[in-house]
Amino acid sequence: MRSTGSSRHAPRIAAAALAAALCAAAPAVAQEPIRIGSFLAATGPASFLGDPEQKTLEMYVERINASGGVLGRKLQLFVYDSGGSAEKARTFTKRLIEQDKVDLIVGGSTTGETMAAVPLVEQAQVPFVSLAGAVVIVEPVKKWVFKTPHTDRMACEKIFTDMNARKLDKLALISGAGGFDRSMRGECTKVAPKYGIEIVADESYGAADTDMTAQLTKIKGTPGVQAVLNAGFGQGPAIVTKNYAQLGITLPLYQSHGVASKEFIKLAGAAAEGVRLPAAALLVADILPAGNPQKPVVVAYKRDYEERFKSDVSTFGGHAYDGLMLAVEAIKRAGGTDRQKVRDEIEKTKGYVGTGGVVNMGPADHMGLDLSAFQMLEIRNGAWTVVK
Amino acid sequence: MAALALVIVLAPLVLANDYFYDVAILVGLNAIVCVGLNLLIGYAGQISLGHAGFFGLGAYGSALLCSRYGVPPLAALPLAAAGVAVLAFAVGRPILRLKGHYLAMATLGLGVIVSIVIANEDRITGGPDGMAVPPFTVLGHLVQGEQAWYWLVGACLFVAVWLALNLIESPAGRALRALHGSEIAAEVVGIDSARRKLEVFVLSAVFAALAGGLTAFYSGFVTPDKASFLHSVELVTMVVFGGMASTFGAVVGAAVLTILPQALTAVREYEMVVFGAVMMATMIFFPRGAVPTLESWLRRRSS
Amino acid sequence: MSGQWVQFLASGLTAGSIYALVALGFSIIFNASRVINFAQGEFVMIGGMSAVSLVAAGAPMPLAIAGAVAVAAVVGLLLERLAVGRARSADVVTLIIITIGASIFLRGLAQLVWDKRIHALAPLSGDTPIEFFGATILPQSLWVIGVTIVIVAALSWFFRRTLPGKAMLATACNRTAAQLVGIEVRTVLFASFGLAAALGAAAGVLIAPITFTSYEAGIMLGLKGFAAAILGGIGSFPGAIAGGLLLGLLESLGAGYVSSAYKDVIAFLIILAVLFVRPDGILGAVRSERV
User: Fold this and answer.
1) Residue A68: pLDDT above 70?
2) Which residue in A84, B96, C22, C64 has its CB near the most CB atoms, within 10 A?
């Protein structure tokens, strides 16, 4: 377990607790830290997501504590590495609730982990802000469950809107075997007719495949294909992009928001030229127009993250930032950590400006983002550019 | 036997909250699989790197029977296990003709096929993100909460161990051990080795399927991870770690390797390094597994 | 499309030669010790990751390759000396579990020494695809295939013509007999781990430009390499090559003509079918059991 913040001052906490017990004095009790729980895929195939999320949570908990905490109380973070396994996520959720007695949970890098935790948080009535993508997390609405990232359905819709603008309507899908990939593939297939888009090919590849030219050759040979969409994250999409160039396919290639980090461009190299993908404003922090409401937030987060960890910022760490800040704001408004009140306040979030977009939640919407939160990006000369 | 009963009955004294119960339940569920797998590996000497496939089929089988066809859980569990038994019987005959590493490969292939099919058929199984499993009811009574599950799983484990011990002491068990020694020698003394091997293979698959079904009902969801190659390796590791050809070794192996990762969260990012090192060290210093080595050590001390 | 099957063939050979290289490592250690070394994939990963960090530190490619191979060889030798060799009297299954422990340990170590990110390595001779008969293949794939051939040739020379090689082969055939004629079985075991690790690392460096590398890259490569080694007949070097190429071809043809989602299922079904017909792999020696 990682526990930053006040755990370093364990003796002091112990002393405070002792003092509280002896005097039964209320003010001492108020110094109890706010316990924030998290389980993330810090290792495993989804460490692409979990690693920056964990770093982000730790950095901002430290920062918040350094500037005096929340409501005069320090934050204490409990993070476990689920390795992306739903089974482990379930046990760690139980541990967070029963053993660590956390006030709320911000975590769950993947949809599988999140859905494993949902029944437990619903039963224990603990506010839970998920960092995973799929629509099922917030549809139907679950009383105690919220999420910060855009859904895969929104990514499909953003891509299809762009395809409509380019007058492309015959799409070939290629997706990986992971949960993210399969979920996005399903959502895209579902919403495609709404945009008048026909899916003419549907190929997949394995989790650790080394070569996707067979699948792409098949797509290349499918009559009428006008564009290709790859749903996935990790090295798969980078290999697809390289193979795409190797085979000399010139059709527009769309990637998903699952590759929204500079690393993708580094991995795919020159082959990434012209690839389009929907992503949050965070990736293009530097070139956002000055009037954009998100500009100050994303520029600050990008600077903090890149200075501290000497690696490129990704939108995934941003989801964790948004999750933590939404929770902190809600705790401030609730004036404490009463779970019911905190839940209600998260649900009432309006106009929160985060790295993922402007969040407006409500009883029927536990994510609070719309398509405007996504930018359509194109990779040109090894850098992100915004498609107008 | 009595010791196991005592441990199961007394453990709640140290289980401080539902999280500890949860870990104890997972230990029990893994132990059930390992007791079965140990019959195959430890006594019959046949390796399997595909038992997670049977575990997964048991889990998904009972979940689907329950949620799609409205079969009550108490019936779904044995039905799914029966299905797995039929499958194990059908594939067991050709597979068990293979030996050693080739057998390992064939069972591994079987497991991989099962897990890929489960992950790909997402309309039925929910795909890689898994599916929800209906609650577990016994004759109309809902089994919920860690304590209820603890006693249920504890009872199942007790029965599993009792069955395994009885089998080992029976003439069939002696035939099995002869197989482990030398198959040809066993045949010479009139043991139908193919049939014996097949019986144990099917039995261990049924143990895995039942544990899989119970795990699904307990968790309330199931993902293809449970059928994966890595889970198969984990199960074999538990058996060998605890000590091959020792039923209690299988239980101990399951317990140690289930609890260890929970304990190691304290060492933060060194978790994998420490876990790997503990595994290596145990096998180097207790080459026959934890329980048999400790047993002979104790016996030497007392004599 | 007439060119399609050529492309499927080219894809299959690309992936297949990668599997073949990994499978060779399994066979070398198996021959010396009867152990399936589950850490073989980790040697491949260590090779790739070491090369990446050496290149990042400014080392020229040949030096990076040599360094990566050396690092992995040392890890392999240490693994034998500190772990596997210490338990040599134990059951084969026990030894296998030790190698599983080692693979977890090495993965954890890699994650600490390096990081959890995915890394790319520059190809040896550019990214411009080579075209033939309507199919395209990357120059790096030719490197992989070429080096695989060279390594197999070198290995067969080593095992047939040199004394240490013959000693290893003799140990593979009959350990006790080898001991009786004065072969240091212990040294053979030691050397085989170094050799297999070096070979794995070479594979890791060669394939990193195609597949990328990360601390977890070894898991699936190890699995596929093991499948290839068994398919070809464990312990047989030509078998490892045949098994690797066949597995790669099965996958790409399966993905091309049947279903990409089920290509691994197709491959494993065919492996099962092959084993039912030839229980010792395609080129494996048929063994008889002694009583």
Assistant:
1) yes
2) C22
Question: In this structure, which amino acid lies at residue A264?
Answer: F
Query: What does residue B70 show for φ and ψ, rounded to 5 degrees?
Result: 65, 20
Selection from A350, A355, A315, A300 nearest residue A133 by Cα: A315
Determine the length of chain A: 388
> In this prediction, what percent of chain A has a pLDDT beyond 90?
66
Residues contacting C170, CB < 8 A, separation 6+:
C177, C178, C181, C183
- What is d(CA A90, CA A120) in angstroms, rounded to the nearest whole number? 8
Name which of C164, C171, C146, C140 is nearest C235 in CA terms. Answer: C171
Report the predicted TM-score, pTM, of the whole model to 2 decimal places: 0.88
What is the C-alpha to C-alpha distance for residues B152 and C155, in angstroms, rounded to an integer?
Answer: 57
DSSP states along C73-88 = HHHHHHHHHHTGGGGT
Half-sphere exposure of residue A214, counting CA atoms within 13 Å on the CB side?
30
Among the ranges given (A1-5, B50-54, B290-294, C17-21), the one the predictor scored with the smallest mean pLDDT: A1-5
User: Which one-letter DSSP state was computed for residue A95?
Assistant: I
Helix axis angle for B271-285 and C92-113, nearest 10°, is: 160
- DSSP run (H or E) holding C137: strand C135-137
Q: In Å, how far from its chain's centre is CA C93?
A: 20
* Structure token digits, residue A132: 């995973």
Residue B122 with chain A: CB contacts under 8 Å: 182, 186
CA distances from A281 to A286, A289, A293, A294, A354 (A): 10, 11, 10, 7, 10
Distance CA B213, CA B216 (A): 5
Window 240-259 of C: residues touching A by CB (8 A cutoff) are 251-253, 255-256
Cβ neighbours of residue B177 closer than 8 Å, sequence gap 6 or more: B43, B168, B245
Nearest to A211 among C1, C14, C118 (CB): C14
Q: Do residue C129 and residue A247 have CB atoms under 8 angstroms apart?
A: yes
User: What's the mean pLDDT when you consider all of chain A?
Assistant: 88
Contact flag A87-B23 (C-beta cutoff 8 Å)? no
Q: What is the DSSP string of A11-63?
A: HHHHHHHHHHHHH--HHHHTTS-EEEEEEE--SSTTHHHHHHHHHHHHHHHHH
Strands (E), chain A: 2-5, 34-40, 75-81, 104-107, 128-130, 145-147, 170-175, 198-204, 227-231, 253-255, 276-279, 352-353, 358-359, 375-380, 383-386
pLDDT higher at C16 or A8 = C16
CB C27 within 8 A of CB C236: yes
Within 10 A of B206 (CB to CB), how many other CB atoms are there? 20
In the predicted structure, residue A9 carries a pLDDT above the cut 50:
no
